[in-house]
TrEMBL record:
GO terms for biological process: translation. This is Large ribosomal subunit protein uL29. GO terms for cellular component: cytosolic large ribosomal subunit. Gene3D superfamilies: 1.10.287.310. NCBIfam families: L29 (TIGR00012). GO terms for molecular function: structural constituent of ribosome.
Length: 72
């Protein structure tokens, strides 16, 4: 599901937070499947973690821009 940064930057703050929440839940499910031995593709855990990191980066960029605009 590798997310594209261009697509993420077009989303609003609440949409990004919702997407992050969904991916955290998916990561939990993947780890649970891995623990029980039912996960077919362990690389999916790494991809999901990276998608979460991408979203957090975009959220940080947006909040930084808002703080900069508010301070000026």
């Amino acid at each position: 599901m590798a997310l594209d940064l261009k697509e993420l930057r077009q989303l609003s703050g609440p949409e990004l937070a919702d997407k992050e929440k969904q991916l955290v839940q998916e990561l939990f499910n993947l780890r649970f499947q891995f623990g029980t031995g039912r996960l077919e593709n362990p690389m999916q855990i790494r991809k999901t973690k990276r998608d979460i990191a991408r979203i957090k980066t975009v959220i940080a960029e947006v909040s930084k821009k808002e703080a900069k605009a508010k301070g000026s």
